[in-house]
Amino acid sequence: MPPTQAESVIKNIIREIEQECAAQGEIVSETVVAFMVKAVVLDPSNAFNMDRTLIKSDVQKLVKLCVTRLLDSKNPSLDTIKMQVYFDMNYTSREDFLEEHHRVLESRLSSISREITDNRACAREELESLYRKIVSYVLLRSGLGSPTDIKIVRETTAALQSVFPQAELGTFLTLGRKDKERQMVELTMIITGIRLFNRDCGKGGEGIDDLPEILREAIPATTHHIDYQLQITQELAYRYTAILEKISKNPLLVKEFQSLLIKEALYNVRQYEIFLQIILSDIISCAQEVELMIRQLGAQMELLKTTVKSKTAVPTSQVFPIFIALANLWTSFQDETVLISVLSNLTTHLEPFLGTHELLFPDKLMQELLEGVIVKTDVYRIKEHMEERVPLDIRKLEWLFPETTANFDKLLIQYRGFCGYTFATTDGLLLPGNPAIGILKYKDNYYTFNTREAACSFADNPEHFINLIKEKAKKNAELIQLLELHQQFETLIPYSQMRDIDKHYIKPITKCESSTQTDTHILPPNIVRAYEWNEWELRRKAIKLVCSRTC
Fold first, then answer.
1. Do 268 and 353 form a contact (C-beta atoms < 8 A)?
2. Alpha-carbon distances, residue 194 vs 167, 188, 481, 485 (angstroms)
3. Which of 76, 98, 170, 305 could cross-link 264 (Cys pair, CB 3.0–4.6 Å)?
4. CA–CA distances in Å: residue 188 to residues 200, 320, 471
């Protein structure tokens, strides 16, 4: 089937599933449906043949299976998939977010910027109207107050007149478009710096929020909320892990507890925990940036006060660069404010994807399941085997250790650091790997294990366990993103991770004792006997040559 035809068929299937779900009162996004279609086709228990074209009965079966799974509101697996899709569609890296944020701001300013740069004012009224537009542009670009507030407009106009009087509009109109745009941006930064300085001196700053103070309050509050959510989530994960560990050790309990969806619930909270940690890491970066900028802002203000003091006139070459530096710092404060707000909203919108836990596992049931079970934290599990090391006799594969690898803590561990052997042999139990035991390097990938025995068993036949994990992921599609199995399932790589797939690969920098000796003569000697460096000798030869030709 041609690619365009196949794409059309897939779109029709997705549309039909959306309509079926909507008819039964469940609104699902096209992205979730598309993910579910791929997940259902991958699941070997559904017996779809990937090597032949789907016939009508296959399509009907696919639609029915997808609708059934999408309407199963009590399944944590569906919540995890929805959470992954939501996070992938709404989260982006700090650099990408700020780049997009600035692009949106520029697009919003494009209309008023065009009005100013294309203006051909001649009459007095037209010039006054153009000047007012420049004032509005400065306010909109700086974000320091509303252009409809008369007090803010008057203050901004006064600041603009001090550096760009209306009499200079004639010169401004003779410039080309790019030069006009460049001058407007520069004027905005200078006016922003003037208004910030006036605010600091208590002589102006109408409508300017105290962003450093707002951020100092917002960041700890957001961090505290995420820490609280992380604590609750991790406690749930530790409990589910303890229950599944008990079940894995007693085969008689497997069938009895299979219908409880404990494994799916564990995947749900682990995925939520990972997303919270990503958000928390970004907020910590914000906090570090804000603290640095607050110090820089104070230093620039002090420098400006020292420069100005009580002087009636100061050279623009001395104060304008400081005003521009203040404006750049304030823009950074605005960026951090927006970023914190977005991350906080993202955290809030992830919480509903945990809704099934209280419904499936009320306190009474959890107490029964945890009876006679020791609940261990991830840190405790790692400490249990901290002194273990892989034995020398199985080191035929490459093993990395803290004392022999410089960037040991920065290596990208497979399965998000969970033990692949335990996952493969216990029907999907997630236990944290312990890097201190040794990190196995196999086909340019790095693996950690929760015990020395697990490391030895995995190293005996890595390909077997890797394939087992892949097969298990086909049955639970949420594992593909949870364990970062995107290399094995390229059709399900999230967009956000597809962009950065090459950025995460870090090679180990191994350390060892070595010495080197530089050769005295690396290349064989090549002495040109006829070479002459003396300028006067060259001249003498040239005269001789001329004389010999004229004789």
1. yes
2. 20, 10, 50, 53
3. 76
4. 18, 12, 59
User: What are 240's two structure tokens?
Assistant: 């589910």
Residue 101 has a CB neighbour count (10 Å cut-off) of 15
In the structure encoding, which two tokens stand for residue 146, read together? 């509303």
Distance between CA atoms of residues 512 and 125, nearest Å: 78
Cβ-count burial of 267 within 10 angstroms (0-12 exposed, 13-18 middle, 19+ buried)? buried
Any idea which residue has 């870090």 for tokens?
A: 506
Q: Find residue 413's DSSP bridge partners.
A: 446
HSE-up of 513 (CA within 13 Å, CB side)? 0
Residues 6+ apart with CB under 8 A from 98: 335, 339
148-171: pLDDT as tens digits: 999 999 999 999 999 999 999 999
Span 319-345, pLDDT tens digits: 999 999 999 999 999 999 999 999 999
What SS3 string covers 189-212? HHHHHHHHHHHHHCCCCCCCCCHH
How many residues in the chain? 551
Q: Using CB atoms within 10 A of its CB, is residue 484 exposed (0-12), middle (13-18) or buried (19+)?
A: buried
DSSP string for residues in 301-362? HHHHHHHHTT-S---HHHHHHHHHHHHHHHHHHHHHHHHHHHHHHHHHHHGGGGTHHHHHS-
- Asked whether the CA dihedral 237, 243, 248, 251 is positive or negative, the reply is negative
Q: What is the dihedral of CA 125, 127, 131, 136, to 10 degrees?
A: 60
Give me the helices (H) in 149-261, please.
150-163, 169-173, 177-201, 211-249, 252-257
Question: Cα separation of 352 and 366, whole Å?
Answer: 21
Say if residues 231 and 43 touch (Cβ distance below 8 Å). Answer: no
The structure's pTM equals: 0.84
